[in-house]
Design goal:
The structure holds two protein chains of two kinds. By secondary structure, chain A is α+β, with helices and mostly antiparallel strands. Chain A has a single domain (15-215), classed as Ribosomal Protein S5, domain 2, CATH 3.30.230.70. Chain A is built from four helices and ten strands; from the N terminus they run E-E-E-E-E-H-E-H-E-E-H-E-E-H. The longest helix of chain A has 33 residues, at 187-219. The mean pLDDT of chain B is 91. Chain B has six helices and twelve strands. In chain B, the strands form three sheets. In chain B, strands 1, 2, 3, 4, 5 and 6 form a six-stranded mixed β-sheet that branches. By secondary structure, chain B is an alpha+beta fold. The chains are: A alpha+beta, B alpha+beta. The interface between A and B is large, with 36 and 36 residues.
């Protein structure tokens, strides 16, 4: 079931994905980028707590579980980023008054964790068969001290960099769905990083497509 | 009549204003609400500031404590920001442990402090490996009417500029710290980051400085933080509808203009506080 994509010119690390590997969730996926690995599970649409019920759409809850310890403030902010990105692409108005729960379990963190969360989330939502208006993917860019842009950095490269940006790109128009940055940078550098991320996103979407195609050609 | 329309169809109500390029409170689409700043409002804190952006009111108090530096960074002090959204400020917040929005705001402020390098944490070190300052920046929202992050950043900056730390010497005999409360000195603020928040309505109309109502109805939110050199410290867009790179450019230009306005405001208030003393 494991698909692996080798990296060529826009240097992304090798990435792999496996869908429906868990039996209890309605959709699950593991996504691996280099040594960074995240396991995602989706439950829903299911019954919702009355206090969280929204009358015209589904309530989406995202839980980020770190490898060790309890989720802290950093995880909360990552949850918010992933949740609002998923809300933008999910057609949640088709399941009003119901709940969707997305759990993201960190298996190993070696940089670009937020982008790996987004990719795993998208694959898990796809596996759950939830209606979406578009797909999305996450790309992390690091600006090295000499101005060089590195896509999909490792933890060591992240530490050395002077700025770090993560974008979520949608599959229909290749625009920016989410952006989260660290460090200071110029406007020009931001635009460059967006352009690079858009280029990298094409590769990831192609990988999504290949991965899903291979999976369904096997089951048929 | 208008009140009934607003309650029954809030989105249509806002759209009818936006069609005419204005907003229900009479503002232009790219106009910020009146921002007022009061520095030194809490006399018991080491530094404080109260900010009002329209109805949104945020107060920030800074408490400095002496502590041991961490083993990983023996030559550095640290800054601990915390954003509190009590039930007092809006009906959407419940008592109990901080909710997602409060925690995300705390993380955002921590990221801004780190990214902008407004204070070099080395300056907070008193004796390497032994003693340093910890700045607890407690930010509390008193009235929530949208655009929390901008108000928090201004309050933080105002309070840090107002902070006066007492002089600390280390007694060579007892090797304990001696605090001289008479002699105080200000913190060195290297950068002046200021945020500007935007909302996207109906996937296309851009408005600045949203109120709480506009935030609820909008499809996406974005906060851009810039410093005085025009460098970006944060482009925070937690999600929502997608934006093109050109649209982002528009936001950034507005954010740089806002930074200049707010820096002028802070300088003016600091100056007036000094002349009053």
């Amino acid at each position: 079931m494991m698909e692996v994509c080798g990296s060529s010119n826009v240097s992304l690390r090798e990435f792999g994905c496996e869908q429906s590997l868990l039996s209890r969730p309605d959709g699950s996926a593991s996504f691996i980028q280099g040594d960074t690995s995240v396991l995602a599970g989706v439950y829903g649409p299911a019954e919702v707590k009355v206090s969280k019920e929204i009358y015209d759409r589904a309530t989406l809850e995202v839980l980020v579980q770190p490898k060790v310890g309890l989720p802290s403030v950093r995880e909360r902010s990552q949850e918010q980023c992933v949740r609002e990105t998923c809300e933008a692409s999910l057609l949640s108005s088709l399941h009003p008054r119901s709940s969707l729960t997305l759990i993201l379990q960190v298996l190993h963190d070696d940089g670009s964790l937020l982008s790996c969360f987004l990719n795993a989330a998208c694959m898990a939502l796809m596996d759950a068969g939830l209606p979406m208006s578009c797909l999305f993917c996450g790309v992390t860019c690091a600006i090295h001290a000499d101005g060089q842009i590195i896509t999909d950095p490792t933890a060591a490269q992240e530490k050395e960099s002077r700025a770090l940006m993560t974008f979520a790109i949608d599959s229909t128009e290749h625009k920016v769905l989410m952006s989260s940055t660290k460090g200071s940078f110029s406007v020009h550098e931001l635009q460059q990083c967006i352009a690079v991320s858009q280029k990298a996103s094409e590769k990831i979407f192609q990988f999504y497509r290949d991965s899903v195609r291979r999976r369904y050609s096997k089951t048929l | 009549m208008a009140a009934g329309f607003k309650t029954a169809e809030p989105l249509e109500y806002h759209r009818s204003f936006l069609k005419e390029n204005c907003r229900p409170d009479g503002r232009d689409l790219s106009e910020f609400r009146a921002t007022t700043l009061n520095i030194g409002s809490i006399s018991t804190a080491d530094g404080s500031a109260l900010v009002k952006v329209g109805n949104t009111t945020v107060i920030c108090g800074i408490k400095a404590e002496l502590a041991n530096p961490t083993v990983e960074a023996p030559g550095k002090g640290y800054i601990v920001p915390n954003v509190d959204l009590p039930p007092l400020c809006s009906s959407r917040f419940r008592p109990g442990p901080p909710g997602e929005q409060a925690q995300a705001a705390s993380q955002f402020i921590a990221d801004v402090i780190e990214s902008s390098e407004l204070i070099h944490t080395e300056d907070l070190c008193i004796e390497r490996g032994k003693l340093c300052w910890v700045l607890y920046c407690d930010i509390m929202c008193l009235d929530y009417d949208g655009n929390l992050l901008d108000a928090c950043v201004i309050a933080l900056l105002g309070a840090l500029k107002n902070t006066q730390l007492p002089e600390v010497t280390i007694n060579t005999e007892t090797s304990g710290p001696e605090v001289n409360l008479e002699k105080r000195h200000g913190l060195q603020i290297h950068k002046h980051p200021v945020g500007a928040s935007f909302c996207v309505f109906d996937d296309s109309i851009l408005i600045v400085d949203p109120t709480a109502e506009e935030e609820c109805l909008s499809t996406a939110q974005l906060t851009v933080v810039t410093d005085e050199e025009g460098r970006l410290c944060s482009v925070h867009k937690p999600g929502g509808t997608s934006l093109s790179a050109e649209k982002l450019q528009e936001f950034i230009c507005r954010a740089t203009a806002r930074q200049k306005e707010i820096q002028k405001l802070i300088d003016k208030v600091i100056h007036s506080v000094k002349t009053a003393q």
